[in-house]
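Run log // design_07
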């Protein structure tokens, strides 16, 4: 079967490399809500009046950075693939496939798989309160906070030479 051939001689090496894809996200948020009103009630003691007021404040952020790699591909699983190199051959984020793979490398063969990575940090804070003054006093307050930190790294596609039934030569 007709196959793919990568050929460099006279001391020239081969570098099969991946493509890097990056994404960065930055977000901030802030909110505030205020309320005020009059409370009126009627009971056995007659009318009672009060004033009520409250509010809510919130703020937060989210920051993420992602780096991923798209491997280079050479050869088809149905055909034979030949690599002839007069120098070092470096497969850094690359895949060589073939029914059979023949190599004639004049230097070192180095295969490196690259890790995709993701880092994310986020924080959200909220505080709220409400008070009513009139025939007595009542109030409430609350505070909450959430945080997130993530750090992830993984190889999505392994680099290498992958031969089928024809094996390696």
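design_07 sequence
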């Amino acid at each position: 079967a007709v196959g793919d051939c990568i050929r460099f001689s006279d001391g020239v090496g081969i570098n099969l490399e991946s493509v890097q894809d990056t994404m960065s996200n930055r977000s901030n948020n802030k909110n505030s809500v205020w309320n005020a009103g009059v409370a009126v009630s009627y009971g056995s003691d007659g009318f009672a009046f009060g004033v009520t007021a409250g509010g809510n404040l919130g703020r937060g952020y989210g920051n993420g950075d992602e780096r991923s790699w798209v491997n280079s591909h050479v050869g088809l699983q149905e055909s034979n693939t030949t690599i002839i190199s007069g120098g070092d051959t470096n497969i850094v984020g690359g895949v060589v496939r073939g029914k059979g793979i023949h190599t004639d490398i004049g230097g070192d063969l180095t295969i490196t798989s690259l890790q995709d990575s993701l880092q994310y940090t986020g924080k959200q804070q909220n505080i709220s309160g409400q008070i009513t003054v009139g025939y007595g006093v009542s109030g409430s307050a609350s505070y909450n906070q959430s945080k997130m930190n993530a750090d992830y790294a993984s190889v999505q596609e392994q680099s290498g030479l992958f031969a089928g039934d024809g094996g390696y030569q």
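Residues 4-41+52-168 form one domain.
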